[in-house]
Structure formats: structure tokens, C-alpha cells
Amino acid sequence: MGKKPSQANLLQTDQVECYGPDGLRISCAGAGQDASYEKKYRIPSAQRFQVLDRVVKDTLTGAVWSQHASPAEFPLTWDEALGFAADLRASRRHGYDDWQLPPRRLLFALLSHQRINPALPHDHPFDDVFPGYYWCRESCRRLETQAWYVHLGGGRVHRGMKHGSYMLWPVSLGKEAVGDEPAAEVERFTLEAGCVYDSRTGLTWSRDADPAGEALTWQRALSLVGLFNRSAREGFNDWRMPNIRELESLICLASHSPALPPGHPFVNVRSAYWSSTTSVYEARYAWALYVQDGIVGVAYKPGADFHLWPVRGG
């Protein structure tokens, strides 16, 4: 493609259908859901993934992945997976000497939110993708005996005991890869009255992380965004419910309770939030973010159990 990867590309999902609380497909016009908005950075798999002799470069992030998604063939503990990656480095497998467990955000960036089993983009070039959990390199900050993993069947991001056994998909980062957890986020957020501008993503968030003041059903949260726009909340009429990638972009894995960047300016941060992205694994559920540690899970749309954190721009 000839273009340097950018953070903005990672904020978009590939979801192109809209679904009601009953899980049935509906028109996206005026629905306020993930697929209601233009996919400016949508890239066909044939252009996104470059196959380079048993490795695949993801031009969206700059990362180089093993084309064989399960080179260890069997599940490993987290320590065993680290050791396997070290052996790959020592042997310069496929000519690379920096193989490692993938950073959580980079493995998350591979996911499709329109396809399942595996939850990877249509016509991806990878082989032997196991539709289950794959290890990430990061430990859980609050629970150091646990590490993060991503479910390649449906797309969940969770944590589990390091002595558990899950799959390994090695990655080579190189110097141009984006999507990794940044080492420092100096002056990332700018407070602008009732809004917070995020220079890392270009998004503007409500400073009040719970403007509704209560937990809502998914449909009620979507409707409330429309009310915010009609009343020009904080002077703007282009608020929306964030998609799951935008919501996850707030997470800092070096923090917990909440897992947000240190010194963030937000107020009234709650434990869990709706996204505008439906889980196509079971379309009566939507993707949600659990803020204590940063889990990406799902929630039953008719349940009034999650909060709304509006966003604009991007």
C-alpha cells in the first residue's frame, strides 16, 4: 500500500450489519450502531495482508505474523509460550530474530467483528487458526499470576491463570508497528470544558464518563445519544456510542481499577460500558468494556446493566 500504518486505522471495525435487541438484522439508517457510520479505512484482505514466504505482514499495523497461526501445534502455559518464542528468535525462524508473544492490542487489531470461527477478516491468508484462546505477552496488572488472551473463535479478550494452556501465535514487531501499548503517554489528553480530546486517537470523549447517571439497556443508550445531539450537549450534535475498538483504545494495561492511563481527566468512571458493536457470535449481545482490568466481553442487549460513554470525531 505504500502508506505508513496509523493509529486511526485501528479504531474502525469491519462490522457492516446492524442488529436489533432481538438479534435480527435491521436497517442501519439512523440506528446509531457501529455499521451506521462510514468505514473510511476499510481495506480488503488482499490489500491489507502481504504474504512474504511463510510470514504475513499486516499493513494496517506493520506487524509481521507467522502465516501458520499455531506453530507450537499444541496449547502451552504462558511460560512455555515465552520459551517457544525465545527458541524462534534463537533459530531466526523465517529470517526474523524478534519473535514474541503478541501484544494484546496487536492481536485485538487482527480480529473481525463481522465474522466468527475464526474471528478474522474475510479471505485472510493465515493457516491453522484455532478458534479458541491465544496468549498475549502482557500480564494482568491487578492479578500478576494471570495473563491476557484473545479468543479467535468469537473475539473476546480476557485474562487467565498463567499455568493454563492456550495457543501461541508469534509476531515480529519491527520498528514501524503501531497498536502496541505505548511506553509513555505524556499529555495524551486535553481537557476542553466538558470534553476530553485524546491526541493518540483523535477522538473526543465526554469528560463525564456516565452522563446518563445510571445503567441502561443497549437500545436506551443508543436513543440517549440521539437526545444528546438534539440538545447539543457540550455544544456538539455529533455524539455517538463508541464502537468496541474506540472504547478499548482508552485502556492502559499498566493500570487497574480503572485500567485507564494515569492522570486521566475523566470523572464518574463506571465499571462497564456498552459499545455500538454487536457480537455476531450471538447478535442479542453487544460488545462491552469492563474497566477494572480492561476485559472486552459481551452483554445482553435488553439488560440495563451497562453505562454509556459518548464519543465524537476520530
Count of runs of 4 or more consecutive helical residues: 5
General shape: globular
> Which structural class fits the helix and strand makeup?
alpha+beta
Extended strand count: 16
Strand order of the largest sheet: 3-4-5-9
Radius of gyration: 19 Å
Order of helices and strands: EEHEEEHHEEEEEEEHHEEEE
Strand content: 15-25%
Q: What's the average pLDDT?
A: 93
Number of domains: 2
**Helix-residue proportion:** 10-25%
* Contiguous runs where pLDDT drops below 50 for at least 5 residues: none
Largest sheet: 4 strands, antiparallel
Distance between the termini: 22 Å
Protein described:
The structure is a single chain. The chain is α+β, with helices and mostly antiparallel strands and 314 residues long. The chain folds into 2 domains: 7-42 and 185-313, no CATH class; 45-172, Roll (Mannose-Binding Protein A, Chain A). It contains 5 helices and 16 strands. The protein has helices at 45-48, 78-90, 104-110, 218-230, 244-248; strands at 18-19, 25-26, 49-51, 55-58, 64-66, 133-139, 146-151, 157-161, 171-172, 189-192, 195-198, 203-206, 272-278, 285-290, 295-300, 311-313. Strands 3-4-5-9 form a 4-stranded antiparallel sheet. It has a 4-stranded antiparallel sheet with strand order 10-11-12-16, with no helix packed on it. Strand 10 (189-192) and strand 11 (195-198) form a beta hairpin. The longest helix has 13 residues, at 78-90. It starts with 17 loop residues before the first strand and ends with a strand. The mean pLDDT is 93.
